[in-house]
């Protein structure tokens, strides 16, 4: 569940993240990626070894509470401790996240984590510890970025080989959504919108550290952009979960300098303008969702 809500935060920050199974990690698929978000206590030893080696080669790893602390047989595992620069202490599952409309809304914080003095210069955000209880023991050389109410380490940042590993004793995706479904949120709307920007930026921070490719940035804080590229065009699906008519709705699309014309699936006119660093500013009338086809100068079509 934390992985799904982490995906929401990344989407709101303009990233379109993939899901990778352990089999993909073991098969070397991580070589295609710059950043990995790791969830769940159980992880196969061969997958943990592949992740460790990938970080050493320059990858950026962001791991949540209990991540990779047990192997596939639920035995204690320390393969990634040196990578994280942190040892898990007192890990325990206290609650399940449940459904956003019901159980998630009523979760009680186990602890409150705040930015440590060592987090200066980073976008670390304060957040609650929910569902999973844990504290961390920082290893020599690791930088403590989060602490619990008692001042104990609850988040670390560590250089491992040419890469970076960030380990937090909490579930940031669940915290991100838990805050958004509190009153005055109407659960019957099925559309939480009151997400905290600082927590979104904290979740997206590792992707920025890794210089991962971003789709773009929309004017709405609850919009998603998904992009598919062909030889002479790109299709961008735009979903604004605010679900209100907006005219114009604008978004900035990264890596789009070659596109000179755009059309929408709805038939609404699309305005395309140049922006800095090879991006394009796109504007159109939007109700909740649309698909925009961007064409290069030589592309055929209507």
Structural features, described:
With 302 residues, this protein is of the alpha+beta class. It folds into 2 domains: 2-209, Class I glutamine amidotransferase (GATase) domain (Rossmann fold, 3-Layer(aba) Sandwich), CATH 3.40.50.880; 216-296, Golgi alpha-mannosidase II (Immunoglobulin-like). 18% of the residues lie in helices and 34% in strands. It contains 6 helices and 17 strands. The protein has helices at residues 2-12, 22-26, 45-56, 81-84, 172-180, 197-209, and strands spanning 35-38, 60-63, 86-93, 111-115, 127-129, 132-138, 143-147, 153-160, 163-168, 216-218, 223-229, 233-240, 246-253, 259-264, 270-274, 280-286, 289-296. Strands 1-2-9-8-7-4-5 form a 7-stranded mixed beta sheet, with helices on both faces. Strands 10-13-16-15 form a 4-stranded antiparallel beta sheet, with no helix packed on it. A 4-stranded antiparallel beta sheet has the order 11-12-17-14, with no helix packed on it. Helix 1 packs across helix 5 (172-180) and helix 1 (2-12) packs across helix 6 (197-209). The longest helix is centred in the last third of the chain and has 13 residues, at 197-209.
